[in-house]
Amino acid sequence: MADHQEASVTLPSDPASVAAARRYVADVLGEWGLPDEAETADSVRLIVSELATNAVQHTFGQSPTFTVDVRLERGEWLRVGVTDSHPRWPRRLPAAVQQDNGRGMVIIRWLTAEAGGRLSVSPTEDGGKTVWIALPWPVGADTPAPSATGC
Q1: What is the mean pLDDT of residues 24-34?
Q2: Per residue in 65-101, is it b (16+ CB within 10 Å) or e — as a string?
């Protein structure tokens, strides 16, 4: 495996792009050896869904696209970033019990911490931001056991 692998996709800021971002990242992780059934794969798909949803919903039409970057560094750290051109950085919103939204960053932070990772936000040259998560790369430790059917 190479010391550093990267993949990237830019999508329109449209609700349909959330599913496209999730599928793209799942495909990349599969190519890099992370089984689709792995717990980390599930967490990353949910994190990407939440980050992409934030990029679509909270940029108020001021970011016509968003970009998803996926990086595997030295086979040790998986970094996933979602970039948009809106200047406002994410913030934790109070979520009422009956409220249907406002929990995205809480979910992202919890899943990232649960996996032993970290979350960061960095500015872009055009005044936007990238929200990054970094997780330990689990291939080998998180791979499901072979099937008992003998196939």
Answers
A1: 96
A2: ebbbbbbbeebeebbbbbbbbbeeebeeeeeeeeeee
